[in-house]
Amino acid sequence: MNSNKKTKEPFSGIRKSNAFILSVLIVWSLAVVYITKDIGQIIWLGNSFGFKIVALIYIALFYLISLNVIMNVITILFVWITGGKADIRKYIRKDKLPNCPPRVAIFYCTCNDFFKPAIETCISQDYDNYKVFILDDSTDSGSKKSVDDFVAEHTGKVSLIRRVNKQGGKAGNLNHALALLSKEFDYFAIIDADNLIPADFIKKTLGYFSIDSKIGFVQASHKGYAMSMGTLGATLASGVEIIYKNFFPVKNRYGLNAYYGHGTMIRTDVWNKVGEYPLIVAEDLSFSLAARSAGYYGLFAEDVVCQESHPDDYKSTRRRAEKWLKGTLEFITIYFPKYICDKKIHWFEKADIAINAIIFIFPLPFTFLSIMIVRAVLPGLANNANYFSYANTPDRNYLLFAIIGSLFFSIFIFNFFKRDIRKTINFLAYRIYCALSDFIITIINIFSFLFYRKAEFLVTGDKSDTFARDRKMLCSESAPFRLLEIIFAAAFLYYGLRLKSIWLILIGVSTLLNIYITRRNRIDKYTNVLIYLIFALALLGAASLFWRPPY
Fold it and tell me: How far, in Å, CA of 38 to CA of 28, rounded?
């Protein structure tokens, strides 16, 4: 089998093409050559050791931002031009569908975040041979009572599984349930506490397993929803559908299909062969990689659309961001290296998951802001305040390239909202504000992970009052973390005013505003105006690149 060629045979779930990742790597390699050639010269413009270190970081940031832009643009181009979103439903083999409906277990996972409408979708499946299990890791008495009351109301439809030892977070919870039930069921579905699944979820996902015997799991698509209107979640929930609908289908042909923690149907044989879920926060990515090493593939089912909630408030949003960031860092630095030399996984599949992990840790807005901050500091370190003059700005073209790439994505979002300018601006304003206000949080979380070398499983919707003080490591809701935020924000404001850097000032102001909003746990009309003002100033700062040296 030649994995380097795009097969003309019916899709089997095995034959894939390296065309997508190869395109990304080729274009990025050219970008690295040009960046090194044009920007690499700045290393010699300062004599101090500190300047040279900062200059190297500066160049590395340009490598990262070019990778971000190239990955996003080529993904969209593959979707639009090459038919990357090929409909794989036509490859479902009806002659291979079992006569007797397979036994299916639905695992509804909850930890102080029980949501009745979600579990009700689990017990309302248009399928006969299935059973629902609530895997309850809750510690809060109120959450436990809600679970107990629901189970009592639906005797015979729902079974409750609790464990004494709650180590391992969600991974440990799943391992405990599967150790008890794996011999009784052919497939199991993983549903998060906020997951709303369609009535035909089981029936449709099972159909995809007929495509090939090596299909190990099927990941459903998702769209976002908000539990309350007029909230942060209501504004940003559309981002869920944008990612699932446009960035994941191409992986059926051109990358490594992973499952994303929920809305997934998994063949029980895969868990038996792979062994237990690794006890890390990104248990979904790690299991996907282990399953691929064991010879199984995943599929993305575009026509099975579940729903997941976007956090309504900043407190939950911060918690989720911390979990995802530290979880991805833990995965890519500790777990992924074990599979680098694994010959059972195609090189382009490994490259795909590695690149996506890197740009998730260092997304385009974070990388852009990092560049602008370093750019404000470099002239002072070089003892040459006029270094970044308009006539001598080799990096300016690459910054414009990054902004044009962002505009390309903005047009993509504009089309997603069916050319509704108001919705597009509202979405972009809050996304940019979140990027600015999360900058210091991200830096603290990265260094926190590097210090502890471990991530904690944080439950986004945890309603317990003891959440922050129960954490063993520095978390974004702890008093020391808040103090560090305030210190960093003050420093950014001070040096922003001193260096006349709009970006340093915006980060400082956004961070302080975020602390205020998180404390009040709501956005009023005044903070909403400030968010739009910050958005406008960010646009002016970006636009200034076109006619003057950037701040």
Answer: 15
Q: What pairs with residue 264 in β-bridges?
A: 190, 219
Domain parsing of the chain, residue ranges: 19-82+362-546, 96-312
Q: How far apart are CA 362 and CA 121, in angstroms?
A: 36
Q: Which residues are within 8 A (CB) of 139 and not within 5 positions of it... i.e. 6 or more apart?
A: 111, 112, 166, 464, 466, 470
Taking the C-alpha atoms of residue 98 and residue 102, their distance in angstroms, rounded to an integer, is 7
Partners of 308 in the β-ladder: 224
The reported pTM is 0.89
Q: Angle formed by the axes of helices 347-361 and 49-80, to 10°?
A: 120
Is 96-312 assigned to CATH 3.40.50.1240? no
Spatial distance between the Cα atoms of 200 and 38, rounded to a whole number of angstroms: 55
Rounded Cα distance, 364 and 72, in Å: 10
Most distant CA atoms of the chain, gap in Å: 77
- Which of 46, 298, 501, 319 has the alpha carbon at shortest distance from 54? 46
pLDDT 10s digits, 124-164: 999 999 999 999 999 989 999 999 999 999 988 899 999 99
Return d(Cα 362, Cα 64) in angstroms, integer: 8
C-beta neighbour count of 361 within 10 angstroms: 21
H-only helix segments in 250-363: 251-254, 268-274, 283-293, 314-330, 347-361
For 217, the token pair is: 């799991």
The pair of structure tokens assigned to 207 is 């159909």
Q: Which amino acid would we find at residue 78?
A: F
Q: How confident is the model at residue 251 (pLDDT cuts 50, 70, 90)?
A: confident
Please count the helices (runs of H) and the strands (runs of E) in the chain: 20, 7
